[in-house]
Amino acid sequence: MKTIKDIDVKNKNVLVRVDYNVPLKNGEVESDLRIRSSLPTIEYLLENGANKIILISHLGRPEGKEKPEFSLSPVVKALEKLTRQKVGFYPLPKSNEKISIEDDLKIALLENLRFNPSEEENSEEFIKNIIEATNADLYVQDGFAVIHRAHASTDAVKKFLPIYAGLLLEKEIENLEKATKSPEKPILVIIGGSKIEDKKPLIEKFLPIADKIIVGGKIAADGYKPDNKKIYVAEDFDENAAGAKLDIGPLSTAKIAEDINNSKTIIWNGLLGYAEDPAFATSSIITAEVLGDKDDATTIVCGGDTTGFVENLVKTHPKLHYSLISTGGGAALEFLLGKKLPGLEAIES
User: Fold this and answer.
1) How far apart are CA 258 and CA 321, in angstroms?
2) Mean pLDDT of the chain
3) Does 96 score more than 90 pLDDT?
4) Contact 312/292 with Cβ under 8 angstroms?
5) Rounded Cα distance, 150 and 152, in Å
6) What would the DSSP string read from start to end of 29-96?
7) Can you give the pLDDT at residue 327?
8) Would you say the CATH fold of 183-336 matches that of 4-169?
9) Is 117 helix (H, G, I), strand (E, B) or coil?
10) Res. 349: pLDDT tops 70
11) CB 326 within 8 A of CB 299
12) Exposure string for 332-341, b = 16+ CB within 10 A, e = fewer
């Protein structure tokens, strides 16, 4: 896979697809994980003399309409703070319109791609217009969370510019490939969440190669019965006053911690309890802490709710460290399942 390290970016205008689909609260970025994850690529381009770095992203599901609550404008402030650079912010260009980025600006961000329905329609004309409007010489794909979508900024763009992987995308792929193609044993897969239908493909995919699969969350509370001895289902639970099983109990949590300590490759997908309520987040907190203290293994956290939970925990426990907190919920899952990802194939082609 060709990455930005394989090309000369000096004096080039580089169009970079990032994933700034971040949570907002009161007009501010609530979690900047995805913005921080894009910094290595941005810093590499700056250090290697890129002329202009033009960032493009989507946010939420505005359904092809310009809805203020889905504007990327709050990201500008967070991006300026993290890069210590002034960042220009521009609307999506209209047909044959040029975007004139000020000479003193190195970084620019365009408005939400999904304000135009053509993005999700995989329109060649739409992405061609952005390329021409920004005078882009190169295209960098660093939006790992969207590479499983055949959209204009992931797929159609291959018709017009050479595509190179950014450093975030490279990190995601390298860690996920290591976990699936050349994992160090013993291999442990921890699965939580609420719907067994959603997790069954992951269980079936890893059953032949994992040494152990642990199932918690509502799936376990609802009485999931495995048909393989490799699969351990949580056996005790913490309940609320009404008797609802909302977290796995101390016995099951202790077994997870023991298995983590005895494993060399660990993949965690899905919270183990109703972690929105701190009273029922205990097992997820302990799992995250044991996993984050382990420095002799490949440790991968994936799935939107799980990565968000772990990221919040890291804010108060900065010493916790993971090989990968994946920025792509659906993309990571589809990659682990061996599905074809249009955005990845566009790079390889």
Assistant:
1) 18
2) 94
3) no
4) no
5) 7
6) ES--HHHHHTHHHHHHHHHTT-SEEEEE---S--TTS--GGG-SHHHHHHHHHHHTS-EEEEPPPPTT
7) 86
8) yes
9) coil
10) no
11) no
12) bbbbbeeeeb
Structure tokens at 244: 């609802």
Token digits for 277?
């309520």
Q: DSSP characters for 129-166?
A: HHHHHHT-SEEEE--GGGTTS--TTTTGGGGTS-EEE-
Q: Are 124 and 152 in contact (CB under 8 A)?
A: yes
- DSSP code at position 231: E
Domain 183-336 class?
alpha beta
55-64, 284-293, 336-345: range with lowest mean pLDDT? 336-345
Peptide bond into 186 cis (omega under 30): yes
Select from 129, 121, 173 the least CA-distant residue to 147: 173
User: For position 333, what pLDDT does the model report?
Assistant: 87
If residue 261 lies in a helix (H) or strand (E), which one and from where to where? helix 250-261
The tokens of 197 are what? 């239908």
Give the global pTM. Answer: 0.88
How many CA atoms lie less than 13 Å away from 80 in the CB half-sphere? 11
Asked whether the predicted pLDDT for residue 15 surpasses 90, the reply is yes
Domain ranges of the chain: 4-169, 183-336
Q: Over the range 198-231, which residues count as b (16 or more CB within 10 Å of their CB) and which as e?
A: ebeebbebbeeebbbbbbbbbbbbeebeeeeeeb
Cα(63)–Cα(65) distance, integer angstroms: 6
- Return the CATH number of the domain spanning residue range 4-169: 3.40.50.1260
